[in-house]
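Bumping my old thread because nobody answered last time. Still need a sequence for this structure:
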């Protein structure tokens, strides 16, 4: 494949070119921030497809966030006319969800399983601990949650956990009970998504070999932050067995991309050691280093390099730029956190006057608690902003309440949702009655929903009324659109009415209305499989790269693939609920608005902005007090600082404050030790460097030069052309609502409603003997009767 032949390769440097056009085989790309790692991965995918080496279905690419996955898809569609929805690009969680949806039976899950987010997981654990009278002083629920998540990240089921003390035994017992509870309720937490799909592959030879044959090219971005289980999952898919054998079906190429200096999730089980293991266990012959940074100007890069050189545990890389020094890194000291925020707002106004978009300004902080003061200042100054990774849209209380009603419609046995709304809005069901109900349910082995008749008296009547309400709602949702379902639930649950009576409920009502919009855009844009170009299913089967695929297994090219045998598929509601659990929902609030971006440093990984503010540069905050005392902790904080600095393209600010309110206390922090590790020549102090305490806030140095540096140009991507618009096919199934049809497994039924077109057409059908089902018409065999 001559390099010059493809315009895709035109702007790459020689090392990048080598990485993009690597021959089949395993490789590690180890390179510093902003050196084009992610760009290389994306370009490689496009190049492999363009040169016919792989079909879209043969690629598996793992990114770290949903945002990164979307970004990759946008860039791909700009490079090539391809249906990215058929491709397996996503986060570990997203991809695992897809596997489990496709093979739920083999994974021992109900087809409608729902996902528990961390909040729900905690409340499920609390509930369990209360039920079994576990002392929550001795075993705080959060710790139990941590323990369970940690075990799962290491791939351990309760029976596999090593027990060294009585406390361990108790925790393992709780883990076991928790698992049983989740299984009974048909819910899985994030760790379970990963572990369950690992076990699915491990225990089912046919499934494993199928995917091993299918995914000829596996690519993982941000590899330094993978944990043990994720690494094992990759190994499994690529045909390396635990014993180091090679399975004949796995002869795919795995490319891992990472930066040891950006490993910032050790506290969550990430193992940099995976890199060395990968090189050894995958017999990696090619290691490529990228040393040119395309993102940042010299002063920013020098600061990053100098800082990280203080770490001892490094694999060793260097980074240079050809962009010239650019502007100095500006440092500001304020008297209070409030003044710090005030200064930032002023600075942003100035930047806006210079023509910088607000979405190109980011404020980064070490911990979420810092955002409140900044948000207040921005709000008061009427500067639009958006918070990432804080309380996500789908995690807000009112949204969770609405989702709980919706989840109960899908799965009456979801006790977590049941408990969330059984008395919300208040309907006179007290704690006593609920305990009674829980006891009855446990005794009978039923879900709470199914146990209400066991409670008598007034309480029982109220409970029965609640259950009746849910059941009636469920019946009413048959045949109506997702939007109508949500509106119906908001109305009939009493949620809207409840918040109307609340003086501060206006925002909440607005959010609930936003939920309707979220559902609407999920159906149209995200496409509940409807508007996307359907990837011809045969393409994959016939492509040379997939010879030997097991024909009895479904070829899953849609995230929500129908069951191969019956054509049964997720309802739009169930699909939306999955989306709500997996997506951050960041796009919902203020979508598309030109807003300042607020996020933690952790959440900023992989992103870039023209202007970056790193706030709270204080001892105890950054580095964080929890990690200052031990050596490894401090090195991780330094890597985090390295990530923060390297997000900036043009301009970087750092600030600290003499006093700060945190968790209700005023703190007097010293300025961060990290300042001392930066090259003095790259910095410009806007306030006197060693001023110590001063009663009044200092003015900031307005009116400084605003040159964009020697190169003058922004180093933005040239991949910004709009995505290829999806095409629509005409309906061809000939079904109409009200028609009687016959399905060879479910028997006779009535068509209730129809959605989508072409290969994506789906019908909701009421089968008297099997209930209401959604079927994909390209798969389900239906004959009119
Ligand atoms: P991080 O470690 O932060 O994830 P990265 O190594 O993944 O960074 P990218 O995000 O891929 O880096 O690239 C950084 C920036 O440099 C992007 O804006 C990218 O488009 C640009 N870039 C990369 N390579 C080149 C190149 N050869 N020519 C011009 N711009 C480039
Ligand atoms: Mg990257």
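Sorry it took so long. Here it is:
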């Amino acid at each position: 494949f001559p390099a010059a032949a493809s315009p895709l390769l035109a702007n790459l440097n020689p090392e990048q070119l080598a990485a993009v056009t690597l021959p089949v085989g395993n490789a590690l790309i180890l390179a510093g921030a902003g050196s084009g790692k992610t760009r290389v991965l994306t370009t490689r995918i496009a190049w492999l497809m363009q040169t016919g080496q792989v079909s879209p279905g043969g690629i598996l690419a793992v990114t770290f966030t949903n945002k990164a996955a979307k970004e990759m898809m946008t860039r791909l569609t700009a490079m090539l006319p391809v249906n990215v929805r058929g491709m397996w690009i996503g986060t570990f969680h997203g991809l695992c969800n897809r596997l489990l949806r496709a093979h739920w039976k083999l994974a021992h899950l109900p087809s409608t399983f729902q996902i528990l987010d961390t909040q729900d997981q905690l409340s499920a654990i609390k509930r369990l601990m209360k039920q079994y009278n576990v002392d929550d002083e001795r075993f705080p629920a959060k710790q139990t949650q941590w323990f369970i998540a940690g075990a799962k990240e290491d791939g351990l089921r309760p029976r596999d956990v090593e027990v060294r003390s009585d406390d361990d035994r108790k925790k393992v017992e709780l883990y076991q009970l928790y698992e049983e509870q989740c299984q009974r309720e048909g819910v899985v937490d994030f760790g379970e998504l990963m572990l369950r799909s690992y076990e699915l592959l491990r225990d089912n030879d046919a499934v494993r070999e199928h995917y091993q044959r299918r995914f000829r090219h596996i690519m993982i971005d941000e590899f330094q932050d993978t944990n043990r289980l994720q690494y094992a999952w990759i190994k499994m898919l690529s045909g390396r067995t635990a014993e180091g054998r090679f399975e004949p079906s796995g002869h795919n190429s795995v490319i891992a991309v990472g930066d040891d200096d950006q490993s910032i999730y050790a506290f969550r089980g990430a193992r940099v050691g995976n890199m060395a293991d990968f090189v050894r266990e995958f017999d990696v012959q090619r290691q490529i280093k990228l040393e040119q940074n395309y993102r940042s100007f010299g002063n920013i890069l020098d600061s990053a390099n100098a800082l990280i050189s203080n770490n001892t545990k490094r694999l060793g890389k260097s980074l240079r730029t050809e962009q010239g020094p650019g502007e100095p890194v500006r440092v500001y000291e304020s008297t209070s956190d409030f003044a710090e925020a005030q200064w930032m707002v002023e600075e942003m106004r100035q930047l806006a006057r210079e023509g910088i978009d607000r979405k190109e300004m980011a404020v980064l902080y070490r911990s979420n608690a810092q955002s409140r003061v900044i948000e207040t200042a921005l709000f008061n100054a009427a500067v639009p902003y958006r918070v990432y990774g804080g309380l996500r849209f789908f995690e807000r209380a009112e949204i969770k309440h609405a989702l709980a009603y919706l989840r109960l419609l899908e799965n009456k046995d979801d006790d977590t949702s049941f408990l969330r709304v059984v008395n919300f809005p208040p309907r006179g069901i007290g704690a006593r009655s609920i305990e009674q109900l829980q006891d009855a349910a446990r005794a009978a082995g039923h879900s709470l929903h199914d146990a209400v008749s066991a409670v008598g008296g007034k309480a029982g009547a109220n409970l029965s009324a609640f259950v009746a309400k849910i059941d009636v709602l469920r019946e009413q949702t048959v045949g109506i659109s997702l939007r109508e379902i949500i509106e119906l639930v908001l109305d009939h649950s009493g949620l809207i009415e409840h918040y109307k009576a609340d003086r501060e409920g206006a925002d909440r009502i607005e959010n609930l209305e936003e939920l309707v919009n979220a559902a609407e855009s999920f159906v149209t844009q995200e496409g509940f499989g409807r508007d996307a170009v359907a990837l011809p299913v045969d393409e994959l089967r016939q492509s040379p790269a997939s010879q030997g695929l097991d024909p009895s297994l479904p070829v899953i090219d849609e995230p929500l693939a129908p069951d191969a045998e019956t054509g049964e598929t997720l309802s739009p509601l169930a699909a939306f609920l999955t989306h709500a659990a997996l997506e951050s929902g960041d796009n919902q609030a203020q979508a598309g608005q030109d807003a300042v971006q607020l996020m933690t440093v952790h959440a900023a990984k992989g992103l870039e902005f023209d202007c970056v503010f790193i706030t709270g540069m204080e001892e105890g905050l950054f580095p964080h007090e929890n990690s200052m005392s031990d050596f490894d902790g401090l090195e991780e904080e330094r890597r985090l600082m390295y990530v923060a600095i390297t997000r900036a393209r043009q301009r970087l600010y750092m600030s600290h404050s003499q006093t700060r309110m945190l968790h209700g206390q005023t703190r007097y922090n010293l300025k961060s030790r990290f300042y001392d590790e930066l090259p003095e020549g790259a910095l410009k102090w806007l306030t006197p460097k060693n001023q110590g305490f001063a009663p009044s806030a200092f003015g900031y140095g307005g009116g400084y030069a605003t040159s964009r540096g020697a190169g003058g140009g922004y180093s933005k991507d040239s991949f910004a052309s709009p995505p290829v618009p999806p095409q629509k096919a005409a309906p061809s199934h000939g079904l109409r609502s009200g028609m009687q049809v016959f399905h060879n497994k479910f028997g006779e039924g009535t068509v209730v409603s129809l959605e989508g077109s072409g290969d994506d057409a789906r019908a909701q059908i009421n089968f008297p003997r099997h209930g209401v089902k959604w079927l994909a018409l390209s798969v389900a065999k239906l004959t009119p009767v």
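The two ends are 56 Å apart (CA to CA). Let me know if any region looks off to you.
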